[in-house]
Structures are given as C-alpha cells and as structure tokens.
Amino acid sequence: MIIIGIVLLVVGYLLGIPFLWTLGIILTVIGALLLVLGSVGHAVGGRRHYW
Fold it and tell me: Rounded to the nearest 5 degrees, what angle is found at the Cα of 45, between the Cα atoms of 39 and 47?
C-alpha cells in the first residue's frame, strides 16, 4: 500500500493531477499506520499476522 501510494504521488505530481496526489498521500499514510501497528504487535483487522 505504501509503494502504491508513493507511485500515485509521483504520477500525480508529474502529470499535474491533484486527485492522484491526494489519493497517494492518503494511501501512504494508511500504509504507514498499518505498518506501525503491525510491527508493534497490535492485531490489525482482527488478525495478528497475514501468513
């Protein structure tokens, strides 16, 4: 999710599309939040791990 967010940020910036820029910021923040919650041991979405 973080990688998709960064790609959307770059594409939105290069093409000048504000919607992609905003969507990229949102996906990057959500991905970082999920990464932090998962790394400290909190269950995310009712699961402790995804494998």
Answer: 65
